[in-house]
Amino acid sequence: MELRIDHMTKQFQDKRAVNDVSLKLTPGVWGLLGANGAGKTTLMRMVAGILQPTKGEIYYDGIEIGTLGAAWRDVFGYLPQEFGFYPEFTVKNYLEYMAALKGLTKTDTKKRIHDLLELLTLSEVKNKKIAKLSGGMKRRVGIAQALLNEPEVLFLDEPTSGLDPGERVRFRNLLSEFAHDRIVLISTHIVSDVEYIATQNVVMKDGSIIASGTTEQLVQQMNGKVWNARIRPEEVSRWEQQLCVVSLRNKEDGSISIRYLAEKPEVPQSQNIEPRLEDLYLWLFPNTEREG
Ligand SMILES: Nc1ncnc2c1ncn2[C@@H]1O[C@H](COP(=O)(O)OP(=O)(O)OP(=O)(O)O)[C@@H](O)[C@H]1O
């Protein structure tokens, strides 16, 4: 099973949103990381067949997906970033409707919806109107519809936005299991969503892939660049202005433990510490807001 993205490019008037991206996706979870505007959504929409590429092709097991036509839609699942629901539908009716669009049989639909409602802890709200659900529940309904046809290739655009930490963990575990023999690509700027479950990560910036590899391979680039030191509370704003600060933690003795990124130690008595994927992300995208 292989999805080959070949020299994909998308030009919007004067904006090149995706610039000659080539990727070979194999079974497992793939993390697609990048700051706002990196081109992640545009790339995913082209694979989903919603957006016409300016240049490039996509092959599933060697066959161009345009040639596959309906057969591609049968094996592909997609959760868009902006998800247009039918607010007056109940959760169950909506999933039945989507199952019919995806061509599932009546018997398959019943069982599949039952299982997905259980899996995504939506059983209790299955007869509620979608308009009445919380943001996190709506997101889970979106995930359920993407999983309806048990897709072999699943693309999820920021799937965890609006999920609480418990839901996030459950969702990550569910995906890890699901991706055992499928290709799952998750676009996110929340590094912890993919740090521990992604088999491979791809980092996009300004429409191009600037790094890719396993989490371990990627974080290696940060060896020797992540530091920890103790500072006094009154020094915080000075160091924040001078350094790329990953985190600040109040210690019991009144001092502050600072984790920062730099080519060499900048704060007196800094210790070199083990890098994480978030460190690389902040190194590549220093101006992004910190993860909450
Ligand atoms: N229909 C469009 N017309 C013109 N420009 C567009 C269009 N869609 C996207 N863009 C631009 O292309 C670039 C990439 O956008 P895209 O939504 O793919 O990024 P992203 O990585 O998904 O960002 P985010 O994390 O904010 O969703 C941005 O500069 C965006 O403004």
UniProtKB/TrEMBL annotation:
Source domain of life: Bacteria
Boundaries of every ABC transporter domain copy: 3-231
UniProt cross-references to Pfam families, sorted A to Z: ABC_tran (PF00005)
Keywords: ATP-binding, Nucleotide-binding, Transport
Coiled-coil ranges (or none): none
One MF term in the entry's GO annotations: ATP binding
Family: Belongs to the ABC transporter superfamily.
Protein name per UniProt: ABC transporter ATP-binding protein
